[in-house]
Design a protein that fits this description.
about 700 residues, alpha+beta, four-stranded antiparallel β-sheet, 15 strands, about 50% helix, about 10% strand, Protein VACUOLELESS1, Vps16_N, VPS16, actin binding, Haem_d1_sf
Length: about 700
């Protein structure tokens, strides 16, 4: 059975399946193994007319593999074969990009990618770089070295030195290549002529006027890749010089690069010993760099960089100063260590004590953390349970168990969002009765809790009101719950939902009755439950969902319209509807169904307590003139009688009634305007004026 000769791992972010893939070389074949299956890689032959291999199954000609590595971006695989060849193949295309034969078939001690452009192979004292173009480059070392791949190159570490090998950036090559006439090279040359007061500076600028922005960008990019401070300064001066003549270039690019280079130059100092490139710095992020400086005990530099980059606003720099002191003083009493920290921290502008308190809490010194938070001048930072940055959590009174103090600080700040944050945290951590006791004495917290719970947590709010003796508030919640239940589409046609609704209202009535101040609400809830029960019975008997949640008036009117006079009389009796109200309701209901015979019979049962005005109004509204004439003469009020005649267009009768009324002058004048074409009012004009 064949044994694997070498392995390589391809990270999941670079694979099509999204899973980790392991590349295994076994004999003449290479397998790709993931959690589901194992497949053999088949390679295509090299492209180009001068390819030495012309075979449909080129993959079989590679032979056994002694070493292999995957490129940093996962797109290429480098193989060192049994016969001393370096083969670079694309993982997706399976096309071979490089096929170079080495002088020795002895496998290299180390093999590493140098950025994304070339591969390094190391044998004793010999380091060879192989790229896609040209011959390989050899570097010789008198002592053993270790290759450390980076995102943009390789660090070469020996017993006496640390070197960084990378491909020359395109921007640097375009400027400093011998005989270069690129826009960036001409701009850099223009600055040199400008310093020597030569007119050739203007000539160079004219040549690159159309591509000046590109030249400025190249100078800035080249400056970022430089390690030599003098050359950085020269390139940035060239960029600033060209920027002055370019109107469409972002003005803050030079300042941003200067800020980055100042940080890089500071950490590249031999006393610090972190020689980062600009690409590595961007991938690392300033926050991680600050953490590394703290671990290296370069606290002052960490603080200065954080202040320079404005990181103190997030607390990262503050933690650099205070966190290390806390870690280094495990046996110092909290009170004494607090004095030491305050002496140091009060010298720093905009310091965040909360960030340092987080570190204290993480170190298990909760009492010290609580004392530090007390000195935080910004309530949100005292209270917030959130991360300040990706590597440094923001401390809070909540995170160290000081919920009472956190609630006081939040309410004093007046920030409702902050109060809600504390309330929700305590809500989850404390038993209900303890939580209720904490918020009861703080008006803002209590009101915010009640407002939120009314919409989202009504059952919990009932428990709160019961625990604080606010029985009437529980009753209101029950009553509202019954109305919400009535909005359910299923609450109709004898639905069983009406039973729970009635019980809720009755329970609310009982709770209201236990307080002297809510007698009216108790009686109203009792009558509401009674009405709902009657309406439920009516819907069940008529099989029509038209009664529930209507008023007493509408219930009576609907019963009469459905000719269910017995049910209407029952509702009248149950709710003590007055005779006047009853006459108005029944009159209009009979007119609605145009039962004029029943209406006339109803009018003759006894003398109506409302008079005959409801009968007249109902007939006129139904546009039944003949029916109205049965009742208009029975109106005892002459003004009402005249107005009724006028509404059905009988001018003479209206005028007669107005003339007979004691105060009918104004009414007659109005009739005259209404019936302006009728001469009857002219005959009444003079006699009437004489009377008045």
């Amino acid at each position: 059975m064949l044994q694997p000769t070498c392995l390589a791992v391809r990270e999941p972010q670079y694979t099509m399946s999204g899973n980790v893939e392991v590349l295994v070389a076994v004999g003449d074949e290479i397998f790709v193994v993931d959690e589901d299956e194992a497949q053999t890689i088949r390679f295509d032959e090299p492209s180009g007319e001068d390819s030495e291999v012309q075979n449909d199954d080129y993959g079989n000609l590679i032979g056994p593999v002694q070493k292999m590595i995957v490129s940093p971006n996962g797109k290429f695989l480098t193989l060192f074969t049994h016969d001393g060849r370096i083969v670079v193949v694309g993982m997706e295309s399976k096309q071979i990009a490089i096929d170079y034969s080495c002088e020795s078939a002895l496998p290299p001690q180390q093999m590493a990618w140098c950025g994304m452009d070339s591969v390094l192979l190391y044998w004793d004292e010999d380091l060879m770089m192989v790229g896609p173009l040209g011959d390989p480059v050899h570097y010789f070392y008198d002592e053993p070295v270790i290759l450390i791949p980076e995102c943009d190159g390789v660090r070469i570490l020996s017993n006496t030195s640390l070197e960084f090998l990378q491909r020359v950036p395109d921007s640097t090559e375009s400027i400093f290549k011998i005989g270069s006439t690129s826009p960036a090279a001409l701009l850099y040359d223009a600055l040199d002529h400008f310093d020597r007061r030569s007119a050739k500076a203007d000539e160079n600028l004219r040549l690159i006027r159309s591509s000046l922005s590109e030249a400025v960008e190249s100078c800035i990019d080249a400056a970022g890749h430089e390690f030599d401070v003098t050359r950085q300064r020269a390139l940035l001066r060239a960029a600033s010089y060209g920027q002055a003549f370019s109107s469409n270039f972002q003005r803050d690019r030079v300042q941003e690069t200067c800020r980055t280079l100042r940080v890089l130059n500071a950490v590249r100092d031999p006393d610090i010993g972190i020689p980062l490139s600009i690409q590595q710095y961007k991938l690392l992020t300033p926050v991680v760099l600050i953490s590394r400086l703290i671990n290296a005990h370069s606290h002052l530099l960490a603080l200065r960089i954080s202040e320079y980059l404005g990181m103190n606003k997030t607390g990262s720099g503050d933690n650099a100063l205070g966190g290390a002191k806390i870690t280094a003083s495990p046996s110092t009493p909290d009170a004494h260590l607090l004095e030491i920290l305050l002496d140091k921290l009060q010298l720093c502008r905009g310091i965040s004590y909360a960030a340092v308190a987080t570190h204290a809490d993480n170190c298990g010194r909760r009492k010290l953390a609580a004392m530090l938070v007390e000195h935080e001048p910004r309530p949100p930072k005292q209270v917030h349970l959130s991360k300040i940055t990706t590597s440094c959590s923001g401390s809070s009174l909540l995170s160290i168990g000081e919920e009472d103090t956190a609630l006081v600080k939040a309410t004093e700040s007046g920030d409702t969002d902050l109060v809600y944050l504390v309330i929700f945290h305590i809500w989850q951590k404390r038993p209900p009765l303890e939580f209720f006791a904490m918020i009861q004495g703080r008006v803002l917290a209590r009101d915010l809790f009640v407002a939120y719970s009314r919409c989202h947590k009504q059952e919990f709010l009932k428990d709160f009101f019961l625990s604080t003796g606010q029985i009437h508030e529980v009753a209101f919640l029950l009553w509202k719950e019954s109305w919400d239940m009535g909005k359910n589409p299923m609450a109709s046609k004898g639905s069983p939902l009406h039973g729970p609704r009635i019980k809720l209202i009755e329970k609310a009535s009982n709770l209201f009755s236990q307080t002297k101040e809510h007698t009216f609400e108790s009686k109203a809830a009792e009558e509401h439950a009674k009405l709902l029960r009657i309406q439920h019975e009516l819907e069940a008997s008529t099989k029509q969902a038209i009664f529930v949640d209507s008023s007493i008036n509408d219930t009576i009117r609907t019963c009469i319209v459905l000719r269910n006079n017995r049910a209407a009389a029952k509702v009248k009796s149950e709710f003590k509807v007055s005779d006047k109200r009853w006459y108005w309701l029944k009159t209009f209901a009979l007119a609605t169904i145009k039962d004029w015979e029943a209406l006339e019979k109803f009018s003759k049962e006894k003398r109506p307590p409302t008079g005959f005005r409801p009968f007249v109004e109902a007939c006129i509204d139904a546009d039944e003139k003949a029916e109205a004439l049965k009742y208009i003469p029975k109106l005892s009020d002459l003004v009402e009688r005249g107005e009724a005649y006028a509404r059905i267009g009988m001018a003479k009768e209206a005028a007669d009634a107005a003339a007979q009324a004691n105060d009918g002058g104004e009414l007659l004048e109005r009739f005259r305007k209404t019936f302006s074409q009728n001469a009857i009012f002219d005959t009444l004009k003079m006699p009437f004026q004489g009377v008045s």
